[in-house]
């Protein structure tokens, strides 16, 4: 009879197919610190996206990004197009509620 392969669960809650283990007890289920519904202590929106920007800051990002996009498109030149393209990052930050810079710095204004 062939030995069964077990796959450990990563901290994201998915099976780690790169590191199979033979036999033995392997924890199956959600990662530690996460309940069976998949929610943890950080507010989440969608899979893997953590909200770390507060509601007022999100509204300001969308409004400011929209104004900058309008300004950039109003210039009618390549520089304006670049300004508008970069400002869409602010709009996305406001809509999604996640900031990679905040994540790297360990800042969370959503709490």
Strands ordered across the widest β-sheet = 1-2
The best one-word shape is elongated
Oligomer: single chain
Strand content: under 5%
Mean pLDDT: 79
- Work out the number of β strands: 2
Largest sheet: 2 strands, antiparallel
Whole-number tally of structural domains: 2
Helix content: 40-55%
Helix count, DSSP H or I runs of 4 or more residues: 3
Q: Gyration radius, to the nearest Å?
A: 21 Å
Q: What this model shows, in words?
A:
The protein is mainly α. It has two domains: 1-38, no CATH class; 42-111, no CATH class. 41% of the residues lie in helices and 4% in strands. It has helices at 55-74, 78-96, 100-105; strands at residues 5-6, 21-22. The protein has a two-stranded antiparallel ribbon. The longest helix has 20 residues, at 55-74. It is elongated. 13% of the residues are buried.
Write the layout of secondary structure elements.
Blueprint: E1 5-6, E2 21-22, H1 55-74, H2 78-96, H3 100-105
Antiparallel strand pairs: 1-2
Helix pairs in contact: 1-2
């Amino acid at each position: 009879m062939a030995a069964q392969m077990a796959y450990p669960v990563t901290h994201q809650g998915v099976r780690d197919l790169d590191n199979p283990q033979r036999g033995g007890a392997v924890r199956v289920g959600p990662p530690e610190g996460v309940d069976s519904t998949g929610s943890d202590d950080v507010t989440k929106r969608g899979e893997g996206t953590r909200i770390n920007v507060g509601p007022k800051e999100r509204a300001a990002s969308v409004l400011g990004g929209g104004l900058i996009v309008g300004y950039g498109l109003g210039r009618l030149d390549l520089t304006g197009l670049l300004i508008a393209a970069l400002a869409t990052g602010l709009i996305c930050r406001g809509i999604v509620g996640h900031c990679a810079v905040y994540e790297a710095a360990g800042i969370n204004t959503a709490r």
